From TrEMBL:
Alphabetical keyword list: Signal
Residues of the signal peptide: 1-23
Cited Gene3D superfamilies: Bordetella uptake gene, domain 1 (3.40.190.150), Periplasmic binding protein-like II (3.40.190.10)
Native organism: Xenophilus arseniciresistens
InterPro entries for this protein: BUG, Bug_dom1
Similarity-based family: Belongs to the UPF0065 (bug) family.
Protein's UniProt name: Tripartite tricarboxylate transporter substrate binding protein
Length: 324
C-alpha cells in the first residue's frame, strides 16, 4: 500500500519536470496562428504583423492561416478542436470570443472553458465610413435619410455576430432609425462593395479601413468608442455628435490557445508577445494601422475575457439580435 503514494509522487514529480522541458523544446516545428477572417481585414493585418515580428525576433516559424466565415466563429471553432500542444493558436477578438456566445443559438465552443488566454495584442475603435463620393457628408445626414425612408440606407459589416455588426445595430437603436445590415465574409469584401457604391456605409474596425481613409477613397463619419482614436484624432465620436452620450463600442485582439495547452508554453508565448509590444517599431506599426497596442499578463487577459463575456450578455440581449 505504501508503494501507491510513492509511485504517485514519482509520477507527479516527473510531470513537474516534463513541463519546463517541453517549454524549452517548444516550438520544435512551425506554429500555426489561425486567422478567423479573410486576408486584408484588421484581424489579418495584426495577425501577420505579430507572426512576422515573432518569427524575426525568436527565429520561430509562425504561420498565419486564414479560416474565415460566420463572423470568425469557424476559425475559432477549429482552434477549439485542435490538440493543446502549443502548435495551434488563434487570433481571437471581442467579436467571436465575447459577443458570439450571446448571439448564436448554437455555438461550437465556449470561449471561457475551451480556451486559455495567451496574449492581448491591441484594441481599436469601430468606425462608420462611406465612400468619398457618397451623398452622406455627416452622421446627421445618415440619420435623417434613415428616418425619412427606413430600411433603405444600407451598411456592410465583416459578418453577422461581430462586434462591428452589433455596433451598427446599437446605433440603430440609439438614433431611433432602421438601417439595413448587409453581412459579408470579412472586412475586405465589404470594403470593396462600399467603395463600389453597392452599400451606402460600412461599419469597420479602424485597421480595416485605415488604408482607404488615408488614400482619400473613404470618408469617416464617426468612431463608436468613448474617446477619439489617437491615430485618427480628427474623427468625432458618435457621442460627440449627439447620438447617445454613453455610446462606446470598441473591439480588441488577442492570441488564444486550446484549453489544456501547457502553462509553461502559454507563459513563454505571453512573454515573447509582450516583448514585441514594448518595441517602438512594433508600437508604431500597430498605431499606423489605427489600433492601440496593449500588453497584458495571461491573468489580466483572462479576466478581461470573462468580464467582457458577462458585460456583453446584457448588451446583446437588449439589442434583440440573434443568429441561427
Amino acid at each position: 500500500m505504501a508503494a501507491v503514494p510513492a509511485a504517485a509522487a514519482v509520477a507527479g514529480l516527473a510531470g513537474l519536470c516534463a513541463a519546463p522541458a517541453f517549454a524549452q523544446e517548444w516550438p520544435a516545428k512551425p506554429v500555426r496562428l489561425i486567422v478567423p477572417f479573410p486576408p486584408g481585414g484588421g484581424t489579418d493585418i495584426l495577425s501577420r504583423l505579430i507572426a512576422t515580428q515573432l518569427s524575426e525576433a525568436t527565429k520561430w516559424t509562425v504561420v498565419p492561416d486564414n479560416r474565415a466565415g460566420a463572423g470568425g466563429t469557424i476559425g475559432i471553432a477549429e482552434a477549439a478542436r485542435a490538440q493543446p500542444t502549443g502548435y495551434d493558436l488563434v487570433m481571437g477578438q471581442k467579436d467571436n470570443m465575447v459577443v458570439a456566445p450571446w448571439l448564436y443559438k448554437k455555438l461550437a465552443y465556449d470561449p471561457v472553458k475551451d480556451f486559455v488566454a495567451v496574449a492581448h495584442v491591441a484594441y481599436t475603435p469601430v468606425v462608420i465610413v462611406t465612400r468619398t463620393e457618397s451623398k452622406f457628408k455627416s452622421l446627421k445626414d445618415v440619420v435623417e435619410a434613415a428616418k425619412a425612408a427606413p430600411d433603405t440606407v444600407t451598411y456592410g459589416s465583416p459578418g453577422n455576430g461581430t462586434t462591428i455588426h452589433l455596433a451598427g445595430e446599437i446605433f440603430n437603436s440609439t438614433a431611433g432609425i432602421k438601417m439595413r445590415h448587409v453581412p459579408y465574409k470579412g472586412s475586405n469584401p465589404a470594403m470593396m462593395d462600399v467603395l463600389a457604391g453597392n452599400v451606402d456605409l460600412m461599419v469597420s474596425s479602424l485597421p480595416s479601413a485605415i488604408g482607404q481613409l488615408k488614400s482619400g477613397k473613404l470618408r469617416a463619419l464617426a468612431v463608436t468608442s468613448a474617446k477619439r482614436s489617437t491615430s485618427q484624432p480628427d474623427i468625432p465620436t458618435v457621442a460627440e455628435l449627439g447620438f447617445g452620450k454613453d455610446f462606446d463600442v470598441s473591439t480588441w485582439y488577442g492570441i488564444f490557445a486550446p484549453a489544456g495547452t501547457p502553462a509553461a508554453v502559454v507563459k513563454r508565448m505571453n512573454a515573447e508577445v509582450n516583448k514585441l509590444l514594448a518595441r517602438a517599431e512594433v508600437q508604431a506599426a500597430i498605431h499606423e494601422q489605427g489600433a492601440e497596442y496593449q500588453a497584458m499578463s495571461t491573468e489580466a487577459f483572462s479576466t478581461l475575457l470573462k468580464t467582457d463575456v458577462q458585460k456583453w450578455k446584457g448588451i446583446v440581449q437588449a439589442s434583440g439580435a440573434t443568429i441561427e
